[in-house]
Design goal:
Radius of gyration: 28 Å
Number of helices: 3
Number of domains: 2
Order of helices and strands: HEHEEEEHE
Strand content: 25-35%
Bound molecules: zinc ion
Number of strands: 6
CATH class of the largest domain: Mainly Beta
Strand order of the largest sheet: 1-5-2-4-3-6
Shape: elongated
Largest sheet: 6 strands, mixed, barrel
CATH topology of the largest domain: Barwin-like endoglucanases
Length: 143
Amino acid sequence: MNKFWHDIKIIVTVFFLMVSSVAVTLWIVREVNVFSPPELGPAGSQSVGPAQLMRVSAYCPCKKCCGKWADGITASGKPAVGLIVAAPPNIPFGTILDVPGYGICAVWDRGGAITGNRLDVLFPTHEQAKQWGVQYLMVKVVK
Ligand SMILES: [Zn+2]
């Protein structure tokens, strides 16, 4: 009987050695994977191109802001929800911008007054759009 328990002990020991060596190997693989590729910067620092000073006004999907276009649909056909920005026609739809204080947003809209160095950021309510007012900000093109 003593020999039986002795064998069990050896089997258990070998089993634990195997499990721990697998764990160590996985840990090493993970560490190597984490450190070998070039580190990407934190979100928000991946902007390409220089930041540009722009006049950033705000709007909401209401009649006061959009007049006859107050149907909740942007000029691109996408619904006017989320972080959406109206940009001049030289900035294509789908361009991702980093607007300080607003966030990483996508160009999905146009506006009659939105030309040159102007942007219009979308808010869900008129009150929030009014609170934003007009700000002059360094805007970056993320992609
Ligand atoms: Zn409004």
